[in-house]
Amino acid sequence: MPADPLDRPGTPQRSTTSLPPDGSATDAIEVRRSSRRRRTVSAYREGDRTVVLIPARMSEAEERRWVSVMLDKLAAQESRRTPGDGELAERARRLSDQYFGGRARPVSVRWVTNQNTRWGSCTPAEGSIRLSHRLQGMPEYVVDYVLCHELAHLLVPGHGPDFWRLLRSYPRTERAKGYLEGVAAAARLPHPPAGRDE
């Protein structure tokens, strides 16, 4: 959900950051209160954080309720647009047909949650491709690039000249690499401290 256009930089806000209600430390929640916001509540993902925008006058109980509602809404939206493993395997088949003449045929393609330092991996001997869950919600051309990268490894192990020549057949390679480099760089930036009441 997009941020409210009334919440511009410079708008007086109070911001608090906390862990999700379930106690997991995977994503922080930042609640931003705005005196300009009267009734609307919105939320969006920002890196590993969820930002919830609420009116400044809301009570803490209302804040807790709205945070829960908005987390559920975001999760529902994301589950609708995130392909499952079967759809991911079908997508890999289509990409192989389109860019590699159908020669790259993985045995399995699936999402995994244990890859936090790489976007994808391939085990050519097993014919398995795994994509990091961190790609979920990224633009389709980025996910397609990572799939093509791993499909190319089924044909050429390693990252030598033959591998990159093969991968050049995917026309958005450089754009997708730039996007992923930007995401990785942003993750290394220090987060500003939580705002104080003014």
Structure description:
The structure is a single chain. The protein is of the alpha/beta class and 198 residues long. Helices cover 39% and strands 20% of the residues. It contains 5 helices and 7 strands; from the N terminus they run E-E-E-E-H-H-E-E-E-H-H-H. It has helices at 60-81, 85-100, 140-155, 161-167, 173-188, and strands spanning 13-18, 28-34, 42-46, 49-55, 108-112, 120-123, 128-132. The strands form 2 sheets. It has a 4-stranded mixed sheet with strand order 1-2-4-3, covered by helices on one side. A 3-stranded mixed sheet has the order 5-7-6. A hairpin with a 4-residue loop joins strand 6 and strand 7. Helix 2 packs across helix 3 (140-155) and helix 3 packs across helix 5 (173-188). It is elongated and about 60 Å long. 22% of the residues are buried.
Topology diagram in text:
Layout: E1 13-18, E2 28-34, E3 42-46, E4 49-55, H1 60-81, H2 85-100, E5 108-112, E6 120-123, E7 128-132, H3 140-155, H4 161-167, H5 173-188
Parallel strand pairs: 2-4, 5-7
Antiparallel strand pairs: 1-2, 3-4, 6-7
Quick description:
With 198 residues, the chain is of the alpha/beta class. 39% of the residues lie in helices and 20% in strands. The chain starts with 12 loop residues before the first strand and ends in a 10-residue tail after the last helix.
- Counting DSSP H or I runs of 4 or more residues, the number of helices is 5
Number-wise, the strands total: 7
On the 0 to 100 scale, the average pLDDT is 81
Shape: elongated
Strand content: 15-25%
